[in-house]
Amino acid sequence: MKESLNILVITTMPFPSGAASVNRIISYSKGLVELGTKITVLSTNIGNLDYDFIDGIKFKSLQTKYKKTRYRTLNFIVSLMRLLYNTVSIKEKFNSIILVSNSLALIYPLFILCKIFGIKFIQEKSEYPFVLKNKSILGKSYAKFYVSTTYKLFDGLIIMTNPLYEYLERKVRNNCKLIIVPMTVDVSRFASIPESNELGDYIAYCGDVGGDKDGVKNLIHAFSMIEHKYPTLRLLLIGGTKNVEELNQLMQYNKSLKTHNICFYGNVDRNKIPALLVNSKILALARPSSLQSKGGFPTKLGEYLSTGKPVVVTKVGDIPLYLKDQKNAFLVEPDDNLEFANKMSYILDNYDLGLEVAKEGKKLTETIFNYKIQAMRIQNFLYSL
User: What is the pLDDT of residues 197-233, one digit of tens each?
Assistant: First the structure.
């Protein structure tokens, strides 16, 4: 009989209410718990310092919020000390640590700790190394050092996409094992959601509205092209951003287009997201072409597909490997806002067809993207280490 697994997952994001990466952690961790694996999640971010549970996952945060900015460094050091202490003080020894972070301030201490206590050290990778964005001479030198040394510290990598796999398999040591685990989703979150017309008819986007990762600016532009044709239809932008300046710029851009039906809905509790997505007419993701979109795979796409509503998304990264235009989703070339606008208009004008396509898309969340199936693969991978 195989030894039962006891896994520690470490993230720098707020848990359990955080970014898409947090939903990914929860979905595959829930699957592992259902398979009999013990899962503990420690977040170095701000949150509840006492242990709690969600879907059978034991978790707690390691950082309290100081009022003054100058205490941030001290706060991180304290959270790091708490992390190391919690890792070694739990009576039942962890078999493996899965790190969801690129921070060397976490990677090196955890590497040393894993070596001392005989724990397998694994990193989950969902995008290219952030250091590759550095353009200065010093930044490029640091990036070269980072990618040539960091990935040799891990015993295994859980990788989200094929381009990432091809990139990282040349950076790891010879005995490091790699596995591709695509987007995972817990479809039960989107079951039995009551229909509501409280917000009227709307197209929805859910995620970080800042930066250019998800192409929110492109989506606003595309919607502005069809707004006149559907006067009662709104674009609901669900989510916020840490960068207030970026949000203000986006609002100014929206104002410059003279749109009237775009709503910056703001941050929403994780438990309220399913209802907002399920009651939309269309779910949209206009990711532009970029290094990030090539290597990543948006977790929100699984949530979109789970609703059974039509999904419009750009052909970036591994998305075309799983989704086919007008078969299980509606695909558009990246950075083509006019095509994106026309695709949304086509769905609205042929909505019965849109729903038939959406049914096929939902089937993917019950098979290849289902958290239970991918959790089984992750468990087998962990045993192989």
Answer: 999 999 999 998 887 889 999 999 999 999 999 999 9
Are 136 and 248 members of one domain?
no
Q: Would you say residue 1 lies in a domain?
A: no
Domain CATH number, residue 56: 3.40.50.2000
Q: Which domain holds residue 145?
A: 6-184+370-384
Residue type, 321: L
Measured CA to CA, the distance from residue 385 to residue 381 in angstroms comes to 7
b/e sequence 172-195, b meaning 16+ C-beta within 10 Å = beeebbbbebbbbbbbebbeeeee
Name the residue with tokens 């707004």. Answer: 227
The rounded distance, in Å, linking the Cα atoms of 76 and 12 is 10
* Structure tokens belonging to residue 70: 């100058």
Angle separating helix axes 351-365 and 337-349, nearest 10 degrees: 110
Q: 131-150, pLDDT tens digit by residue?
A: 888 788 888 888 899 999 99
DSSP code of residue 179:
E
Q: Give the other-Cβ count within 10 Å of 204's Cβ.
A: 25
For residue 43, count CB atoms less than 10 angstroms from its CB and return exposed for 0-12, middle for 13-18, buried for 19 or more: buried
Contact assessment for residue 99 and residue 10, using Cβ atoms and an 8 Å cutoff: yes
Same-domain pairing of 198 and 126: no
Give whole-number Cα distances, 148 to 31, 115, 171, 360, in Å.
Answer: 33, 20, 6, 42
Distance CA 271, CA 265 (A): 15
Residues 6+ apart with CB under 8 A from 174: none
Tokens describing residue 241: 């951003």
| Residue of 347, 337, 349, 354 lying closest to 225 (CA atoms) | 337
CA distances 350 to 228, 281, 346, Å, are 18, 12, 6
Total tally of structural domains belonging to the chain: 2
